[in-house]
Amino acid sequence: MAALRLKLDLQLFSGEKTEAATPKKKQEARKKGQVAKSMEVPAAFILFFSFLSFFLFGGYMKERLVGLFRSIFIDFLNMNVTMDNSMVLFEKIATQMFLILGPIFLISMVIGVVGNYVQIGFLFTGEPLMMKFSKINPLEGAKRLFSMRAVVDFLKSVLKMTVIGVVVYSTLMAEKDNILQLARLPLEEIIAFTASLTLQLGIKIGLILIVMAILDYIYQRYEHEKSLRMSKQDIKDEYKKTEGDPLIKGKIREKQRRMALQRMMQDVPKADVVITNPTHFAVALQYDASKMQAPTVIAKGTDYIALKIRQIAKDNGIITMENKPLARALYAQVEIGESIPADMFQAVAEVLAYVYKVKGKAN
């Protein structure tokens, strides 16, 4: 047990980064562009949905493409080659190509934005673009080149190519007989079969890359959390910077208490009566009918502070009355500067009536 306690104590001074990053540390890292992000996620989804879009817009794209070739061979084949005619031809081709490829470009752009937003949310920062000499330092570059992250990226690429190669090989082998018969088929059927096989491979590869991208994102998130880990001393230092040194804050609070106590003692001479317990509690009450709706507690305390209140009251001729239940109730239920509650009106009124009688104010 003693050895375990010693080990835990030594961890406080070892500087080992074993603690999860604080929200403040994560927020600062995010402002610098340091977030958990995998470039594989948007790339995989773009590939998958791009091939999927061929299924969705295949008929539309085929119709537009056939119309483009028909227009070229029918409308423009016998035209005179002039500057104006060439501009018209290029404009028509560019417009049709935009209409053909536009859906794929739009889907790719939307998927790319969504793929990044899902990972890191909305983030705009120019911190990664700032010039830093460490980025061009050969030693730092060599460290990154032979780091564990580089090894993991290399193994990840090898695994990716291996899996894709196996999928392509198995798919082509399954269609081996049909591929061997292509030479005997018409051109239209060859194109249709090739397009179908390409789309099939694209969908399969896209799904595999999505699975691998999700796994890569989990790994990147783990690495990001690991890189942000803090030592116990780091957390203490951050707390001091954020909240202030506990010793200094304690001294400030102590000074504030002394100042509040001093102000309270200065108000005791304004009291009409001090109710005691008789030694453990003391509560000073003031009542001014022209300014107050009910008697107000202007000072209270226990033990030493109660003694000081009684002493100041004695020095200033303030009447002190012993009423144990009332003193305890006032101390527990009424804060300094607050009026007494309604259920204490009767008891306090009797005390004040006695005080006024003593002072000759009954009439």
Automatic annotation (TrEMBL):
Parts of the chain that traverse the membrane: 41-61, 97-125, 146-170, 190-219
Compartment(s): Cell membrane
Signal peptide: none
Keywords, comma-separated and alphabetical: Bacterial flagellum biogenesis, Bacterial flagellum protein export, Cell membrane, Cell projection, Cilium, Flagellum, Membrane, Protein transport, Transmembrane, Transmembrane helix, Transport
Gene3D superfamilies: 6.10.250.2080, secretion proteins EscU
Stretches of the chain forming a coiled coil according to its record: none
Biological processes, Gene Ontology terms: bacterial-type flagellum assembly; protein secretion
Function comment: Required for formation of the rod structure in the basal body of the flagellar apparatus. Together with FliI and FliH, may constitute the export apparatus of flagellin.
Protein name: Flagellar biosynthetic protein FlhB
